[in-house]
Amino acid sequence: MPSGRRSNRRPYGMPVAPLDVERARGGRTIESGPDGEWVVQRVRGSERTYRCPGCDQAILPGTAHVVAWQADGLLGQEAALDARRHWHAACWAARDRRRPTRR
Ligand SMILES: [Zn+2]
Questions:
Q1: Nearest alpha-carbon partner for 93 in 65, 69, 71, 59
Q2: 18 C-alpha vs ligand 1 centroid, how far in Å?
Q3: CA 25 / ligand 1 centre spacing (Å)
Q4: I need a labelling partner for 15 at 20 to 30 A (CA). Which of 37, 48, 96, 100 fits?
Q5: Phi, psi angles (nearest 5°) of residue 60
Q6: Backbone dihedral region for residue 52 (phi beyond 0: left; psi -120 to 50: alpha; all else: beta)
Q7: CA 92 to centroid of ligand 1, rounded, Å
Q8: What's the CA-to-centroid distance between 36 and ligand 1, angstroms?
Q9: Rounded to the nearest whole angstrom, what is the distance from the C-alpha of residue 90 to the centroid of ligand 1?
Q10: For the residues of 54-89, what is the DSSP string, one character each?
């Protein structure tokens, strides 16, 4: 009996690419706004529900939307990332008109 092949079972789960990888590959753009430069990341959907600061409505899981954070955050990239916001794509596009209340 050959001893070198003890594994003809597949590993239980192939590692699934984490969402962050997809995010990193997805369209990430820098957009200038009235309140500075923003990194805008388009995502296909999350597992969580977020509240869109543009319309104050929920972004349901699985809904494509954008995540935005300040590219030139005064507190540094980590703080800016930490303070990122999830927006409906349309609300993000319209935020200039809406003049979102910040804080
Ligand atoms: Zn919205």
A1: 65
A2: 26
A3: 24
A4: 48
A5: -75, 155
A6: beta
A7: 7
A8: 20
A9: 7
A10: TT--EE-TT--EEEEEETT-TT-HHHHHHT-EEE-H
DSSP-assigned beta bridge partners for residue 30: 39
Predicted confidence at residue 2, as pLDDT, reads: 57
| Parallel, antiparallel or unpaired: strands 65-70 and 28-33 | unpaired
Residues of the chain predicted below pLDDT 50 = 21-23, 100, 103
Instruction: Calculate how far, in angstroms, residue 9's C-alpha sits from the geometric centre of ligand 1.
Output: 47
pLDDT at 60: 96
Strand partners, 86: 67
The pLDDT assigned to 21 comes to 47
> What pLDDT is recorded for position 92?
94
Distance 57 CA to ligand 1 centre (A): 6
Q: What is the widest separation between alpha-carbon atoms in the chain? A: 74
Helix (H, G, I), strand (E, B) or coil at 21: helix
- How remote is the CA of residue 55 from the centroid of ligand 1, in Å? 4
